[in-house]
UniProtKB/TrEMBL annotation:
Lineage start: Bacteria, Bacillati, Actinomycetota, Actinomycetes, Bifidobacteriales
Region (Disordered): 1-52
UniProt name for this protein: Phage protein
Residue stretches of biased makeup (Basic and acidic residues): 1-14
Superkingdom, taxonomy of origin: Bacteria
Amino acid sequence: MKGETVTVMRREQTGLDEGNNPVYETKPEPVGNVLVGAPNGENSGDSNRPDGVRIDANLYFPRGYKGDALRGQTIVVRGHPYKVVGDPLPVDGGMTPTEWNMTVPVTRSDG
């Protein structure tokens, strides 16, 4: 299996304005070798997702990914922006059967 490059659009605070309000900038962070998969078929009314968020795709990030947490970030996949659902964490525990160790569920909103 071979992954593709996606771009995490990382929103970072870059300072404060004259009213002492935070100022943010979006910085692209390309991530290579990400597998893009179909959602797992769970219903959005499932008790695991009580807010009814539909999962449009699952992204499988490689073990080598050392970026910051993905919670609340936008990821551009094949030219389309997706919002990360939840707070994905890598699976670590000594087992290394594949190159990918973090599932990132994403949703897309066109409106």
